[in-house]
């Protein structure tokens, strides 16, 4: 998947920071893609590569109605010429919200399931059912975090980030954090 080699790092200025002698900067992963939060692309990179290696034509994943992961998977799959299927928690509410409308517009097939079925989404029974319905697919877990996702998020930091003593990131499933953590430089 196409990812920029380096993402700009912008310094932030505030009187409190200069008073305390703190240098604060933000790595602009939001610039990795115009519409998708950049960490999601790092998480998807090796998963989509693996889907192709396995000869799959579609990827299937799960999420809530406001999932950035659903949105990003639709976008990234399209960019990689893979079909995408999104299993969405809860009833279909129309018109679709911006997240789901965007995913659908990018070609993602949306499939809505009730909350009880959603809780059982990882069971063999449920996966067999959706396999019958959608055919063979590459499965990406809810939130997109697995080993290959972490392999991707290990590429978020680069050598220019060694100047920093602390790295902060938000956490959902922890895939972004895990990759960053395991690729930290000694300092
Ligand atoms: C998905 C997401 C996260 C959480 O990422 P995890 O790898 O699931 O921890 C944090 N911030 C933003 C903006 C996100 O889209």
Going by CATH, the architecture of the domain at 39-147 would be 3-Layer(aba) Sandwich
Fraction of residues in helix: 25-40%
Element order: H for helix, E for strand: EHEHEHEHEHHEHH
Secondary structure: number of strands: 6
Summing up helix and strand content along with how strands pair, one would put the structural category as alpha/beta
Estimate what percentage of residues fall within beta strands.
5-15%
What Rg, in angstroms, do the CA atoms define? 18 Å
Annotation keywords:
187 residues, alpha/beta, Rossmann fold, 39% helix, binds pyridoxal-5'-phosphate
Would you kindly provide a written description of the structure presented here, covering whatever features stand out?
The structure is a single chain. By secondary structure, the protein is of the alpha/beta class. It has a domain at 39-147: 3-Layer(aba) Sandwich (Rossmann fold), CATH 3.40.50.1100. Helices cover 39% and strands 15% of the residues. The chain has 8 helices and 6 strands. It has helices at residues 15-20, 38-53, 68-79, 98-105, 115-119, 124-134, 147-153, 175-182; strands at residues 9-12, 24-27, 58-63, 83-89, 109-113, 138-139. The strands form 2 sheets. Strands 5-4-3-6 form a 4-stranded parallel sheet. It has a two-stranded antiparallel ribbon with strand order 1-2. Helix 4 (98-105) links the parallel strand 4 and strand 5 (109-113). Helix 2 (38-53) packs across helix 3, helix 2 crosses helix 7 and helix 7 (147-153) packs across helix 8 (175-182). The radius of gyration is 18 Å and the shape is elongated. The model has no long low-confidence stretch (mean pLDDT 93). Pyridoxal-5'-phosphate binds next to helix 2, helix 3 and helix 8. Pyridoxal-5'-phosphate binds at residues 37, 39-40, 68-69, 143, 145, 170-177.
């Amino acid at each position: 998947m196409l990812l920029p080699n380096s993402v700009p790092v912008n310094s932030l200025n505030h009187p409190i920071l200069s008073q305390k002698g703190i240098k604060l900067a933000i790595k602009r992963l939001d610039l990795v893609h115009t519409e998708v939060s950049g960490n999601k692309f790092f998480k998807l990179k090796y998963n989509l590569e693996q889907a192709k290696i396995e000869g799959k034509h579609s990827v299937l994943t799960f999420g809530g109605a406001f999932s950035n992961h659903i949105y990003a998977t639709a976008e990234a799959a399209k960019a990689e010429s893979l079909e995408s299927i999104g299993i969405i928690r809860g009833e279909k509410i129309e018109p679709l919200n911006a997240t789901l409308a965007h995913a659908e517009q990018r070609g993602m097939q949306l499939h809505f399931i009730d909350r009880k079925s959603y809780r059982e989404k990882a069971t063999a029974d449920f996966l067999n059912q959706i396999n019958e319905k959608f055919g063979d697919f590459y499965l990406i877990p809810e939130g997109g975090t697995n080993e290959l996702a972490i392999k991707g998020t290990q590429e978020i930091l680069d050598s220019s980030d060694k100047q920093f003593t602390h790295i902060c990131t938000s956490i959902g499933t922890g895939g972004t954090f895990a990759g960053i953590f395991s690729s930290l430089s000694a300092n």
